Amino acid sequence: MHKTHFGSAFRCGRMDHSVYDGENAMPRYLLVSFKTCPWVQRAAIVLREKAIDFEFRHIEPDNRPDWFLAISPHKKVPVLRIDDTVSLFESNAIAEYLDETIAPRLHPDDPVERAINRAWTDYVPTFAEGVTSTAYADTETDYLKAKEKIPVVFERLEQALAKQGSGPFFNGSKYALVDAAYAPFLQRYYFLDRVKPLGLIERFPRLKAWSEALLTRPSTHSFEQDAFEAMYRANLHRRNKWVSQFVSPAQVAAE
Length: 255
Ligand SMILES: N[C@@H](CCC(=O)N[C@@H](CS)C(=O)NCC(=O)O)C(=O)O
Prior knowledge:
By secondary structure, the chain is α+β, with helices and mostly antiparallel strands. The protein has helices spanning 38-49, 66-71, 91-101, 111-122, 124-132, 140-163, 177-195, 205-215, 225-239, 249-252, and strands at residues 5-6, 13-14, 29-33, 54-58, 79-82, 86-89, 102-103. Helix 1 (38-49) runs parallel beside helix 3 (91-101) and helix 5 (124-132) packs antiparallel against helix 6 (140-163). The chain is globular and about 55 Å long.
């Protein structure tokens, strides 16, 4: 079991103390995780952006402990356990909760902007499916079919970004929850592109620039970057799908 602490409780700005005992007592946060889960990564990014001290507890997908099954209704990660009493699940609900209770606010102040951000956050599961389904294709034909979906979801975001600020983030200079939601999946595009070149993001300059801004943001990363990519490749190799043959043994050696 690995535990990692990020941030400092002292840098934390609480906005709503109502659910906790003492005015000054910081709640304890436990984020239950599978190491390479993008939805966990999203929750971890929000915790780091808010400099919230948390315990990061990684469990194995194939060996989910009873204490976890008792607090996770869908048996999925992430779960955010608060003060060992409340368990939140679903990465979007966790992100929204953290944004409502801990400063700095990451959603835009303007209600229309916020609604637009939430609408594009709702698109994340479709985007995620579009970006990562090549990794689950059983045959070359299925891989090529899956690859065709990527420019479709990329184009949607390219157009959304054209209507937003001038970058580097979704709304312009201020980082937001919507950035945290997309970062893990944009990162996985690059992982897959490095296993078997896809060469697609280059056609979408705004999306590419946004991805680069997100990938250089320290909060995006829960692990040392090369080690994390090696873990991702090892999973891909283990899954034994069509693309797995392109993961070289050397690429997973660092796991
Ligand atoms: N919609 C969920 C998705 C979470 C999810 O799919 N987690 C995966 C790991 S990345 C999981 O726990 N899968 C286990 C399972 O499906 O049994 C969220 O946003 O939190």
